[in-house]
Amino acid sequence: MSSLPLHHPAGATEWHLPSKRRVGMSALIAGECAIFTIFVVAYVFYIGKSLTGPTPRQVLDIPIVGTICLLSSSLTIWRAERAIEEERIAWFTLWLAATIALAAVFLIKTILEWKELIYHNGLTISTNLFGTTFYSLVGLHASHVVVGLFLLSSTLVCSLFGWVDSRQSERFGVIALYWHFVDAVWIVVFTVVYLIGR
Amino acid sequence: MGDYSFPVSTPIEPSATASEVGTFLERLHGWVVTVDHKRLGILYILYSTFFLLVAGAEALLIRLQLAWPRNHMLSAQVYNRLFTMHGTTMVFLVGMPFLFGFANYIVPLQIGARDMAFPRLNAFSFWLTAFGGFLLYYSFLGGAGLYGMGNAPDVGWFAYAPLTARSFSPGHATDYWALALIVSGFGTLGTAINIVATVISLRCKGMTLMRMPLFTWLLLVVSMLTLVTITPLTAAQFMLLIDRYLGGHFFDTQAGGSSLIWVHFFWIFGHPEVYVLVLPAFAIANEIIPVFCRKAIFGYPAMVAASLAIMFVSLGVWAHHMFTVGMTSVSTAFFTLSTMLVGVPTGIKIFNWIATLWGGRIRFTTPMLFCIAFLFQFLIAGLTGIMLSVSPWDWQLHNSYFVIAHFHYVLVGAVVFCIFAAFYYWYPKATGRLMNETLGKWHFWLFLIGFHITFDTMHVLGLLGMPRSIYTYQPDRGWNLINMVVSIGGAIQGIAVLIFAYNFITSYWRGAIAGDDPWDAWTLEWATSSPPPSYNFEELPEVHSRRPLWDLKHPDDPDWEYEA
Questions:
Q1: Whether A6 contacts chain B with CB within 8 A
Q2: What is the pLDDT of residue B148?
Q3: Model ipTM?
Q4: For a FRET experiment, which of B339, B444, B478, B516 has its CA 20 to 30 Å from that of A10?
């Protein structure tokens, strides 16, 4: 009994754990997925159940430009991630600005779409079930774009002041993860609202 | 407890903090701005203890009203508000904050971390939760918009549509309900994210997933479940507010909307929520039962697997709350079978606890007594759950007192009993003093007797056909005697809780000094001083088995020689 091994056989193994920021953001995304699922289910459930017009087919146009802009912003933010990891800060700033510009185009297109719907077609959130579900689902997604835009713009400001270097790459990776999520959700929303529901 | 010393941590001088206490205002300020997981854990627990007393008082008023037939002590409106507030408070302001409070306090200590992953998010989540709770209770003052008397929400804790529509629930009471739960829901989401990140990313060296204490394991499972459980409710409440304020039609049957979809959304949240509440109770039993029968937990991997199985299965059983709404026979059969399936992993857990007790040298201290009562009561609660999962049986007894008795058997008989066990078990760690054992035994026996008088007989009331949510009844129904008995049991429980409250407060000054490890336990929280210093461990520990303190106390026979 006195011949106690001094070191546990596994004692010398390396100890690596995942980044807490990435885990935290992934957990948030899991929760957000549940929120979007409920709104998507409500939208799908109420397709074609409106008692009055206007119907989606009458008023909705497929937002091709906005969709292309939003989806390609995933590509530009991925380039920005690469750039910050490799300490190419000028390129990082450039790719980040491109991401913000693309997201802004998406938002402006959405605003114009809504303006058209409200003033021209007379579709508001209280008009019929389509209006209720459409504005809440697309609006929920758009509010996530706004949050992402705020995160990206504040990073851009920091970057323009020269406060960003590769030490922040992990933090920026978390913002990028959120942004990829916002883009992925748009694929679902786009499919449900503009392809299936129309 | 022997004269070994813990190399893991050198306790700080207890008098060091005493000399730095500061004035009352300074101390109060310290508590308000704190980001320390232990202080936030204590704040969570004090907050939910306060609301436990409030919601308990509401329950006693309900029982007082129902003790006699044709009683008009409370009006029907006040009665509706009371059961709504009782249910909402107990689930959102008592159950979840209690469990997150214990998680906050214990999890970082058990995994050998200095704090939670995001301490400021932790503080933010607590204050959101607290704000939500007080917002809900502010409805008593502001529910009708400050002109007339205020009124609390009266739509039931499930707030079925279309009762919540503007035309049927004017005023702001329902909005207080929805907004308060949205706010505290965001707090809950923040804490769940925090616990997941803490457990995954902050474990001390050597603590692999299969060496984590089961308490931590189950809180990880609960937090993952919470992420996808509380969020559907938040989404549905946003829809409710859109309906009420922006003229939306989600639940408006006049415009083609469906009130049934609210019921689905609510129970997609509501049923997993039961497991969010009961899994931490399992977690507490997993810690206490082995320590007080002096054996390692039986079937550790099976316990982990069963918890994960419960998490997944619980997401697919919600419509067993809805057998009476008229579903297709396929969905009815599906939800009957999936509900019965939950019984399998739960049964595995019960067998494992019994196998842990088997042949152990059981010490019948107060926490252990509460856990043993939990075992029996949870078994009965599970069995009535299986009965209710059989849809023809449920058609007969839906919304009767049988259902009320069933879920109170789970929420009181399992969850509250385990929460009391956790109080007696971890109180010495948080305060440095033991709670009084004699008063603890009084509390246990009175609460046990009161619990069984109330909830055993309540099953009979349900079988006799008494529906829930009625404020009074006719004397010729044959419910008079049993209702009186149920109310007397409630009063006994009330007395027991007052004894607990007295014990809880006075032990802080008069309790016996506990020392670091009063129970001779095996997990890392007992390796540091009581109460732990703000940095928890002077140097971060390294573990080699599931019971690191056993290894320290028994270097000739360490656990890791036997664990694969």
A1: no
A2: 52
A3: 0.92
A4: B516
Contact yes or no for B274/B408 (Cβ under 8 A): no
pLDDT recorded at residue A4: 38
Kindly state the helix (H) or strand (E) to which residue B337 belongs, with its residue range.
Answer: helix B329-357
Q: If you average pLDDT over residues B347-372, what whole number do you get? A: 96
With beta carbons less than 8 A apart as the criterion, state whether B471 and B65 touch: yes
Across the range A27-48, mean pLDDT stands at 96
Residues in chain B with CB shorter than 8 Å from the CB of A125 are: 242, 246-248
End-to-end CA distance of chain B: 29
Which DSSP category does B429 fall into?
H
Instruction: Please tell me the distance from the alpha carbon of residue B528 to that of residue B539, in angstroms, as a whole number.
Output: 10
Q: Which of A4, A24, A133 sits opposite B197 (nearest CB)?
A: A24
* B118 interfacial to chain A (CB closer than 8 Å): yes
Which residues in chain A touch residue B234, judged by CB atoms under 8 angstroms apart?
35
- What is the mean pLDDT of the segment spanning B125-132? 96
Which residue matches tokens 């299969």? B210
Could you read off the pLDDT of A80-132 as tens digits, one per residue? 999 999 999 999 999 999 999 999 999 999 999 999 999 999 999 999 999 99
> Which CATH code is given to the segment(s) A20-49+67-196?
1.20.120.80
Closest partner residue to B206 (CB to CB) among A10, A23, A49 is: A10
With cut-offs at 50, 70 and 90, classify the pLDDT of residue B171.
Answer: confident
Which residues in chain A touch residue B239, judged by CB atoms under 8 angstroms apart?
A: 39, 42, 136
Q: Does A162 touch chain B (CB under 8 A)?
A: no
Cross-chain CB nearest to B248 (options A28, A37, A132): A132
What domains does chain B contain, in order, with CATH numbers?
Answer: 40-561 (1.20.210.10)
Mean pLDDT of A172-185: 96
More confident residue, B172 or B52: B52
Query: Contact B343/B386 with Cβ under 8 angstroms?
Result: yes
Nearest-Cα residue of chain A relative to residue B234? A35
The pLDDT of B253-275, averaged and rounded, is: 94
Spell out which residues of chain B touch residue A10, defining contact as CB-CB under 8 Å.
206, 544, 560
CA dist A55 and A52 (Å) reads: 8
Write down the pLDDT at residue B20.
57
Domain range annotation of chain A: 20-49+67-196
Sign of the dihedral through C-alpha A69, A74, A80, A86: negative
A129 touching B, CB under 8 A? Answer: yes
Beta carbons of A132 and B544 less than 8 Å apart: no
Chain B residue whose CA is closest to A17: B201
Tell me the three state secondary structure of residue B26. Answer: helix
Question: Alpha helix (H) ranges present in B143-259?
Answer: 173-201, 214-246
